[in-house]
Amino acid sequence: MLSAFLKKKKKDLFLYAMRLHDDQLEDISARFQAEMKKGLSAESNAAAAVKMLPTHVRSTPDGSERGQFLALDLGGSKFKVLQVKVREGMGIRKGGVEMEEKIYPIPKELLIGRGTELFDHVSESLKDFLQEKNINLEKTHPLAFTFSFPCEQPTLNQGLLLSWSKNFRLRGLQGKDVVQSLKGAIERTGGMNVDVLSMVNDTVATMMTCGFDDQRCEVGLIIGTGTNACYMEALRHVDLVEGDEGQMCVNTEWGGFGDDGALNEYITEFDRDVDAASNNPGKQIFEKMVSGMYLGELVRLVVLKMAKVGLLFDGFVSDALRTKGKITTANVAAMEEYKTGLKNTRDILTGLGLTPSQDDCIAVQHVSTIVSFRSSNLVAACLSAILTRIKKNRSLRTLTITVGVDGTVYKTHPQYPKRLHKVVRRLLPESHVRFVLSDSGSSKGAALVAAVAQRLASRRKQVDETLFPFQMSQEQLHLVKSRMRADLEAGLKNKNPSTIKMLPSFVYHTPDGTERGKYLALDLGGTNFRALLVNFKKGLHQNTRLYHKIYTVPMEIMQGTGEELFDHLAQCVSDFLDYMGMKNAHLPAGFTFSFPCEQTAIDTGTLLTWTKGFKATDCEGHDVVNMLREAIKRRNEFDLDIAAVVNDTVGTMMSCAYEDPECEVGLIAGTGTNVCYMEDVRNIEKRDADAQRMCINTEWGGLGDDGSLNDIITPYDAEVDQNSLHPGKQRFEKLTSGMYLGEIVRQVLLDLTRGGLLFRGHVTEALKTPGIFETKYLSQIESDRLALLQVRSILQQLGLDSNCDDSIIVKEVCGAVSRRAAQLVGAGIAAVVDKIRENRGLEHLNITVGVDGALYKLHPHFSRVLHDTAKVLAPLCNVSFLPSEEGSGKGAALITAVAKQKQQM
Ligand code: BG6
Ligand code: BG6
Ligand code: GLC
Ligand code: GLC
């Protein structure tokens, strides 16, 4: 009696280290949480034992997946080739998946041979499958690849093998892209056309398989030959992948937990022995305590030891019991069968050449239970760590989630699932965790991933095709430059009144610093109307004082009658003078009027045609200075001496030239686009002075009005032109300026949406609204500093409900449109500066371009692309760009100062 009691005590002592209490499980869970963090962080990832591999799978199934795929399932206990057909629709009833599969045995020697030989076997099996199922060998078949080993994935269809695990140990593949190896093998086999779309780990594929029927499934778990888990992590925590919005499935590779010693306290001598005799000593420590490949062996080693010390079989040890692999995980499962377990145990032991007593059978069954119980406890601890992390990520009090599970241990061990579920629920009392067994292996899920990949690839292709016409080749840009040049020349000779007008400005010099006095400046034609007071004091560059006020011009005024427009301006001026307390000052004023005007003197300007968003009646053909004077007269409240009317380009050039004497070009890249520059008077037909140079307002926005840009004009541009206030006019401006870029973007987005490539194909009212994309939004959306989430919120402000992929595409469209604009303006500038260089007979020209306009100043990339293009297209000019600091008003005031000085002379 005593000896039986002692024996039991001794046996228990043996197994003591394998029994894990809840506080120990909680400790293990906390350790695993720390390991996950380490693996996710960019700094510690390289040294982490738990690798936390990003998978590029960003969502669980949503029912929109469809297509027909071949699938390979390699790395579990069975290698399978499959054909999977996915119909659109969620779940078993609505949608559906049909599968045909064949298991191909892998000869043992192939598992430890050369990698290429294994892949040749894989691809030959694939070909055999195609032939057997009469699948057309001519057609290209998309393929989904489940590969159940740790791989670093730069993209969904690349996988660099980190290490082999389980019973695979092949030469020549570690560190290589297994997708490439597979493709190589398929090529070697020949005679089939296969496109490997995606590669996924079995955990990921299992999560997707189960996610097809249960949308809450966001964890995939394998307890088979090996063990591993994946889950949907918040992308902001996945350091190794750019982006911070949404989720990404992370393959934890939890089998490696403990490889850095984190589990040392829990490791027994039997675990050490199993590890030492394995294919990969020191690696996959957690896996070796848990998974099917090792459970039987653990039981054998415990039983062997107990027999050796006389606790079993009266101390007898058979050869079979000494032989590695003689107790399998299937044996473990059989020994724990509910009713037949004890009998099975006896049969198994007898089969090993032993003669067990009833007590021996009970004791061995007990060993088996302890070993498998420890396995499910360890899985429960790590799984609860994952679930706790998800719960924290989402700031939830209770988490309701489904775990998709596969693997022979889970599927065939009679007690395992129940025990696992129970412990998980005990460790996480506040969560509702459902476990779903993957009914059909992992390939269904792999095909769902491939379906999404296929859709994205086809969407990518269509988006690229749509944006292709916006890409300017160097050749095209050279052509634009030479057309610009030709039209500048023709305009000077008065030969092309329909395109570039080349209007004399009657400004003969840039400022020399002698300008003095107080002037009023009025600035109409950009985004807003501005009134300014400028005071030039002694000393160049320093003593300019400036006060200003901004007024909006309502659309009904821009497009009402001329009288209303000028009355509105007079009212704004009146308000400004009140504001400055200068109603009675009778100041000289300069008027920046940013539309094409035919001038015969500095203080007259006949509006040739409205451009941009203005279309007030009875103005074209009239002197705008007169109209303003009359409006002031009508008001009969104050007096103004309008001494100069200037285009905004001219005002900008003068403003900047005040700072930099090399500034002889003025550029506006804002609502509209235009350039002025100092032209040699000998080249100007419509001249009236003997001065050497005169500033010419090119009105280059008209380039292309004769059809010369038709080869680069896209259907979207044509649509924007047709819907504009002045169809057929200002074609260059319509490709390059703030007023139109947003509209071009909107047209492209409309087209992409109609094609089902954006916003899930919903053409919303917001998208149909002209003008929603103002330049400022374009600038914001394209900002590199802006996260995708912010892009999405801008789009939401505009009434466009986008997801992460939509936001990426919208940003790309904006980028294509604004880049083309900047390149075209760059080509134009190259034409202008080269002309100036040639005018002056110079080998090399140093010149500064004064610039203004919201597109130039606020867009994150426009100015850079413009500078780069100008540099490439005008290599003999060294062009500096100087943004105007106080707008064109200061320049207008300078011109007024000179005009007044002249009057006084
Ligand atoms: C299968 C999956 O059902 O389970 C495989 O299709 C997976 O992808 C396997 O690797 C895991 O279990 P086991 O026991 O075969 O290793
Ligand atoms: C302003 C100038 O700074 O820029 C205006 O003062 C000019 O004269 C304007 O018309 C151009 O930019 P936007 O973006 O307002 O059209
Ligand atoms: C091993 C592999 C892992 C796989 C698991 C289950 O742990 O490293 O990638 O998911 O086995 O098959
Ligand atoms: C339009 C006008 C032009 C102006 C430019 C920038 O092109 O026609 O005069 O300079 O816009 O505002």
Automatic annotation (TrEMBL):
Pathway named in the protein's UniProt entry: Carbohydrate degradation; glycolysis; D-glyceraldehyde 3-phosphate and glycerone phosphate from D-glucose: step 1/4; Carbohydrate metabolism; hexose metabolism
Residues annotated as signal peptide: none
GO cellular component: cytosol; mitochondrial membrane
Main localization of the protein described in the UniProt heading: cytoplasm
Protein localization: Cytoplasm; Mitochondrion membrane
Molecular function, one GO term: glucokinase activity
Reactions this protein catalyses: D-glucose + ATP = D-glucose 6-phosphate + ADP + H(+); a D-hexose + ATP = a D-hexose 6-phosphate + ADP + H(+)
EC category name: transferase
GO BP, sorted A to Z: glucose metabolic process; glycolytic process; intracellular glucose homeostasis
Membrane topology: Peripheral membrane protein
EC number from the UniProt entry: 2.7.1.1
Family per similarity comment: Belongs to the hexokinase family.
Purpose: Catalyzes the phosphorylation of hexose, such as D-glucose and D-fructose, to hexose 6-phosphate (D-glucose 6-phosphate and D-fructose 6-phosphate, respectively). Mediates the initial step of glycolysis by catalyzing phosphorylation of D-glucose to D-glucose 6-phosphate.
Protein name, per record: Hexokinase-3
Lineage: Eukaryota, Metazoa, Chordata, Craniata, Vertebrata
Gene name of the record: LOC115439025
